[in-house]
Write a structure and sequence with these properties.
By secondary structure, this protein is of the alpha/beta class. It has 13 helices and 19 strands. The strands form five sheets. Strands 3-2-1-4-5-6-11 form a seven-stranded parallel beta sheet, with helices on both faces. Strands 14-19-18-17-16-15 form a six-stranded antiparallel beta sheet. Strands 7-10 form a two-stranded parallel ribbon. The protein is globular, with a radius of gyration of 24 Å. This is NAD(P)-dependent oxidoreductase. It comes from Kitasatospora phosalacinea.
């Protein structure tokens, strides 16, 4: 069986690909930039097709020889037109699949209340329903799995739950904390997606199916149970009726890494009771031995993955439609207009390996090694402007790969031990990059840091010159502190290595 997977650089697609390979399928990944697959451990085992579901002309060749196509993309959080964008993209995908003779499309949608008119659904859930309908317009059978909150390390829903519970021992919440929800473990979602490819060619499988875990809980109950499993005290949760979805999304955006643009549609959907109303899929895909994974076990698995630094994919891994994708302008010639640079170099009295560990560990909990208040203010301003802000953090505390999100940057290129290039994803009147380079220099290393900015119009020019006076503090301090941290790590290693020898001499004396 040959499968086409969209969203392979995202949260679910990136986890489904190895499951399909293990099942013996031949896998082709439809991606806008094949380079973003480079560092995935399964890259050599898959084909890459360059295409974009929002650009229909790029789709046709991707379906050649495909039996089953997985539709795992959305434009949630991309702006007020996300419903139209999702609908148009799904229609183009379904038509291209039909032209190529694809046997089945498998789509993961959202669980909806069965008795609620579509017009009263939240924009997010309404878009999920409309996407499934648009995929069917080409005539290819579509198996749609409708799920509610997905519990797994790195999912947006889990990150919201985790950070709200961990950071707020006392919280005043909206009324949706008492809405009933049927969460599902990400492992069960993957199991069902995999099995859906093997469903028979029966008209009865060309439809939407409700899926869910074994328990129905309120969001309040999920937070309390998360607190217990994470070793936290019981949370004090007071719900009030005055918090609108807009206010709630700002509250979630303030406390969690999930930006307001993504938090709002998720929060709006939580006002609906989302519980399975049928179990028809069980006829073709029975529960595994022992049944589906319960909420507590799903949380334990997610926390273990986070603790062991084994988070394979994260909600922020996916690029949104419209994200900047222009390549870094070629040096030294730049014919496309102004390209401003701030360059800092330092010799570091530490081996290149020690310096690289500091460079690759930048951001997230480690911060940016200079003027934390300035970085925090910049992140807050970005959130207010509808951007991702500074708190997306990292997928892994110490390891990066191409395509990883890193606070309000994304890893555009990484050459282990030598180069880390980040592309800015904050709201800017232009394009920006931050490039960090490590080279050997005698018995030490040389650190080179370049901040580059390609302005768009007068607003971009004004932006660069308005922030230029702060570069000495922000970028200069960053270079100094990265060098100092590498030298400090070298000194600590030397002291640790000397300690056993000192101890042995003391014992012999």
């Amino acid at each position: 069986m040959r499968c086409l997977v969209t969203g392979a650089t995202g949260y679910l697609g990136g986890r489904l690909v190895p499951e399909l390979l293990a099942d013996g399928a031949k896998v082709r990944c439809l991606v806008r930039d094949p380079a973003r697959l480079r560092d995935h451990p399964w890259r050599a085992a898959v084909e890459a097709a360059t295409g974009d579901v929002t650009r229909p002309a790029t789709l046709d060749g991707a379906f050649d020889g495909v039996d089953v196509a997985y539709y795992l993309v959305h434009s949630l959080g991309s702006g007020p037109d996300f419903e139209r964008t999702d609908r148009d993209a799904a229609r183009a995908f379904g038509l291209a699949a039909a032209r190529a003779g694809v046997r089945r499309i498998v789509y993961l949608g959202g669980l909806v209340p069965p008795d609620l008119p579509e017009g009263r659904l939240s924009p997010h859930l309404r878009s999920r329903v409309a996407t499934g309908r648009a995929l069917r317009e080409g005539g290819t059978p579509v198996t749609e799995l409708r799920a509610a909150v997905v519990i797994g390390s790195g999912s947006a829903s889990f990150e919201m739950l985790r950070h709200l519970t961990e950071r707020l021992p006392v919280m005043v919440t909206p009324r949706w904390v008492d809405t009933r929800i049927q969460p599902i473990a990400v492992r069960d979602v993957l199991r069902l997606l995999l099995a859906a490819a093997h469903l028979p060619d029966d008209p009865a499988t060309d439809r939407a199916f409700d899926v869910g875990g074994p328990e129905v809980l309120t969001y309040r109950a999920m937070m309390q149970r998360y607190a217990r499993l994470a070793g936290l005290r019981r949370r004090v949760i007071v719900s009030v009726p005055v918090l609108t979805p807009g206010l709630s999304s700002h509250w979630v955006g303030l406390v969690t890494p999930v930006p307001g643009g993504l938090a709002r549609p998720l929060v709006e959907s939580l006002r609906h009771e989302v519980v399975r109303s049928e179990r028809d899929l069980d006829r073709w895909i029975p529960d595994p031995p022992g049944g589906p994974i319960g909420f507590d076990r799903a949380v334990e698995l997610a926390l273990r993955r986070i603790r062991d630094d084994e988070v394979d994919t994260r909600w922020s891994s996916a690029l949104l439609p419209g994200a900047p994708s222009d390549p870094l302008p070629t040096d030294p010639d730049w014919a496309g207009g102004s390209l401003y640079q701030d360059v800092r170099e330092r010799r570091v009295a530490a081996p290149p390996e020690a310096l690289w560990r500091v460079v690759e560990g930048i951001g997230g909990e480690h911060g940016w090694y200079s003027f934390p208040l300035a970085w925090a203010v910049r992140g807050a301003l970005d959130r207010l402007a509808g951007g991702v802000g500074l708190r997306r953090g990292r997928r892994s505390p110490g390891r990066l790969r191409v395509g990883d999100s890193l606070d309000f940057w994304r890893v555009e290129e990484i050459e282990p031990g030598r180069l880390l290039r980040l592309r800015a994803e904050m709201r800017l009147p232009g394009l920006a990059w931050l490039e960090l380079t490590v080279t050997p220099d005698g018995d030490g290393a040389r650190y080179r840091q370049r901040a580059l900015f390609h302005p768009h119009g007068l607003a971009g020019q004004a932006y660069w010159w308005s922030v230029a006076p702060f570069h000495a503090v922000v970028f200069g301090g960053m270079a100094r502190n990265i060098a100092a941290r590498a030298e400090s790590a070298r000194a600590e290693s030397a002291r640790a290595a000397a300690a056993p020898a000192e101890s042995a001499r003391g014992e012999s004396g």
